[in-house]
Amino acid sequence: MVSAAMVATVAKQKELDDLVSTLGGNKLKMCKPCMEDTCSDILQVIETEVKNTGGHNMIWIRRSPGVGKSSLTASIST
To answer: Residue ranges of the chain with pLDDT lower than 70?
Structure first.
């Protein structure tokens, strides 16, 4: 007999699989983090801001295309 929890788990997994498929499936490319010894200044600023409990709850990163915003966010998330 299949439990309701098992059915719910399978349904959630199918929903996630459908979403990944819609977004490109296995074709999704993960950005590589910043290269060693790069971005250290901005990463330090972000770390300080994140640790500031009285500070902002969001950090906005904006620059021209191709300057490394995605690599920076990959570094932050790892």
So the answer is: 24-29, 78
> For residue 15, what are its two tokens?
């929903």
41 and 25 housed in the same domain: no
d(CA 46, CA 50): 6
- Give yes or no: residues 50 and 26 share one domain: no
Q: How far apart are CA 63 and CA 69, in angstroms?
A: 7
Instruction: Provide the residue range defining the domain that includes 71.
Output: 31-78
| CA pair distance 76, 31, nearest whole angstrom | 12
What CA–CA distance (Å, rounded) separates 31 from 75?
9
Q: What global pTM score does this model have?
A: 0.55
